[in-house]
């Protein structure tokens, strides 16, 4: 489907309603923070008015055109204040404009959060009004009207700072790239591009509040270029996101940070997922490891990662002193093992799931395919204790490792403590967190090195971000399921993955995924959305390793996931529509995935492992055996 910008003049005019009085040059100087707060209140009042109009039309059974017009006017007003709402009230933002999928919260005792907000309403009225769901539509609009009324109260009691305001504007640039133009926010109405204009105009109106001090000339020029690019007469599928990101949004991000520096506004001191001292979102070290880390293992000494690396390659952690972490996570295979499912302990069958890459594994809120743990420290202990994986026990590992004088010295250097259960976990996690790599051809292309990606890969990126809808689950730039721009949660999906690759007689894999941990029907067959960085090296694919090639994976998605091969899962979260990708588009997507390959500096094993006085321990085999 295509959305042509036939009404761009009208939505630009509508965007100015209710804001002409806010953040405009004044005869006397006004505190910019107070001006932003005033702007937010005015826009929220306008949002409330627009939504009340939508609610009235819904309850009056108005024609589809009127419902859709009111819906668009209301969500455009929300987009104008989205930068501030997303930062100050993220839970509210998720309830108002989150995906139309019921979710279970692992952190809240398995509580189910039922989908609410604009995207739920969107599904009822686009592309045509679902008259059979009138009762549900009325209920949803009433609920959202109440939420918007609550927002007005939250805003009136909220204290703003210039640090927060600039962080909000800068993170909105990322959000537009990762969630806006990808279609994540407007999956049915397909208004992602005009809504991105509204979000950028929100940034501009906030900037106006600071211009009494210093004109934001360069930022305004970059915003104007962004408007022009977004308003081209082009369809959603044909929009050139690669050029938009590299040539428009990255300069905008840089100029916005430069303007912040000119004003002398410091970055917010609290830890965040994004390193706000960087001026764009494609720097090698843009993500903050400590944000994703256990609080007792932040900013580890370099000695900790070196110690963890030795432990990772040392089979001393296993029950038979022959199997190491590296047995299933081999550096030469981007820390996977090339098997559908790894061989189980001592070669007795297979483990239950495919071995995922550990590169960039730190950038997740939950771990394992079933998202059963939060931190890498806990994951390490789980794997060591698993009877089919390492079949060891961390307490026994402490006893064995303590027999090495060299290990004792290394633990002392890293933690100023002896070998303990906890320091083993901390060291392993410190090493895995060091396996960060954000310097692929794609990253360099986005920094301006246009020869870093071949034309086929650039075309594939545009399909990935647009027509193929891949980026609505694998969020750019991490390309995993951790949701930008605050990165507060990692998502899972129900895809309908088959047990075998035979599409003629497909049956869903018997592994129930998150259901085995959280015991809720919503989570049957749900699995974590993994990163596709380095996916060119990490086959076989899916949680069960059912597909041996990227071609098979793309074909599965192109058919509509499990539904497209005859698997009936009522809770499938992957859209069941066929993508209608051409053979060349599929080939281009694969070229793009290969452009995400980057294992530089991560694949060298330790030069040696510590020796033991115990001859039996010294006989262990480096790298492990099955």
From TrEMBL:
Q: Is Cell membrane a UniProt keyword of this protein?
A: no
Domain Cytochrome c: residue ranges: 303-436, 455-597
One GO location term (cellular component): cell envelope
Q: Where in the cell is it found?
A: Cell envelope
Annotated Pfam families: CCP_MauG (PF03150)
Its signal peptide is: 1-21
Q: Which SUPFAM superfamilies match?
A: Cytochrome c
Q: Which GO terms describe its molecular function?
A: cytochrome-c peroxidase activity; electron transfer activity; heme binding; metal ion binding
InterPro entries associated with the record: Cyt_c-like_dom, Cyt_c-like_dom_sf, Cytochrome_c_Peroxidase/MauG, Di-haem_cyt_c_peroxidsae, Imelysin_sf
Q: Please tell me whether the keyword Heme is annotated for this protein.
A: yes
Protein name, entry field: Cytochrome C peroxidase
């Amino acid at each position: 489907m295509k959305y042509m910008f036939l009404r761009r003049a009208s939505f630009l005019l509508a965007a100015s309603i209710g804001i002409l009085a806010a953040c405009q040059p004044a005869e006397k100087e006004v505190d910019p923070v107070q001006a932003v707060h005033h702007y937010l209140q005015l826009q929220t009042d306008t949002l409330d008015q627009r939504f009340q109009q939508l609610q009235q039309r819904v309850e009056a059974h108005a024609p589809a055109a009127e419902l859709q017009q009111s819906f668009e006017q209301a969500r455009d007003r929300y987009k104008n204040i989205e930068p501030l709402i997303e930062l100050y009230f993220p839970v509210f933002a998720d309830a108002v404009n989150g995906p139309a999928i019921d979710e279970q919260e692992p952190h809240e005792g398995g509580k189910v959060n039922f989908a609410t907000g604009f995207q739920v309403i969107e599904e009822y009225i686009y592309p045509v009004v679902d008259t059979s769901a009138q009762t549900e539509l009325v209920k949803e609009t009433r609920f959202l009207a109440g939420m918007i009324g609550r927002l007005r109260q939250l805003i009136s009691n909220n204290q703003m700072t210039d640090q927060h305001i600039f962080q909000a504007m800068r993170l909105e640039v990322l959000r537009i790239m990762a969630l806006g133009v990808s279609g994540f926010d407007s999956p049915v109405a397909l208004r992602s591009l005009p809504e991105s204009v509204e979000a950028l105009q929100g940034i501009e109106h906030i900037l106006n509040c600071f211009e009494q001090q210093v004109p934001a000339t360069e930022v305004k020029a970059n915003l104007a270029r962004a408007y022009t690019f977004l308003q081209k007469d082009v369809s959603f599928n044909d929009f050139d996101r690669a050029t938009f990101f590299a040539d428009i949004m990255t300069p905008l991000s840089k100029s916005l940070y430069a303007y912040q520096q000119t004003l002398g506004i410091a970055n917010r001191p609290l830890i965040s997922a994004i390193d706000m001292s960087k001026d764009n979102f494609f720097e090698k070290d843009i993500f903050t490891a400590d944000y994703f880390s256990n609080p007792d293992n932040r900013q580890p000494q370099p000695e900790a990662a070196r110690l963890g690396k030795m432990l990772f390659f040392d089979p001393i952690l296993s029950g038979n002193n022959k199997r190491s972490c590296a047995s299933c996570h081999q550096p030469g295979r981007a820390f996977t093992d090339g098997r559908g499912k790894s061989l189980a302990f001592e070669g007795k069958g297979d483990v239950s799931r495919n071995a995922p890459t550990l590169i960039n594994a730190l950038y997740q809120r939950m771990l394992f395919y079933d998202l059963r743990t939060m931190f890498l420290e806990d994951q390490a202990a789980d794997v060591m204790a698993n009877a089919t994986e390492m079949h060891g026990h961390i307490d026994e590992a402490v006893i064995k490792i303590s027999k090495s004088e060299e290990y004792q010295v290394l633990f002392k250097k890293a933690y100023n403590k002896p070998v303990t259960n906890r320091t083993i976990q901390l060291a392993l996690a410190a090493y895995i967190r060091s396996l960060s790599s954000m310097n692929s051809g794609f990253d360099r292309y986005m920094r301006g090195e246009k020869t870093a990606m071949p034309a086929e890969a650039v075309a594939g990126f545009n399909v990935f971000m647009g027509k193929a809808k891949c980026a609505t689950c694998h969020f750019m730039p991490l390309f995993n399921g951790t949701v930008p721009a605050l990165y507060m949660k990692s998502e899972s999906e129900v895809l309908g993955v088959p047990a075998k690759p035979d599409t003629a007689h497909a049956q869903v894999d018997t592994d129930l995924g998150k259901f085995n941990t959280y015991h809720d029907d919503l989570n049957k067959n749900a699995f974590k959305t993994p990163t596709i960085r380095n996916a060119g090296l990490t086959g076989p694919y899916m949680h069960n390793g059912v597909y041996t090639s990227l071609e098979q994976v793309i074909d599965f998605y192109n058919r509509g996931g499990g539904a497209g091969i005859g698997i009936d899962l009522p809770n499938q979260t992957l859209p069941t529509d066929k993508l209608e990708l051409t053979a060349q588009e599929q080939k281009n997507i694969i070229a793009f995935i290969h452009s995400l390959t980057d294992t530089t500096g991560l694949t060298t094993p330790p030069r040696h492992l510590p020796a033991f006085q115990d001859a039996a321990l010294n006989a262990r085999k480096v790298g492990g055996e099955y």
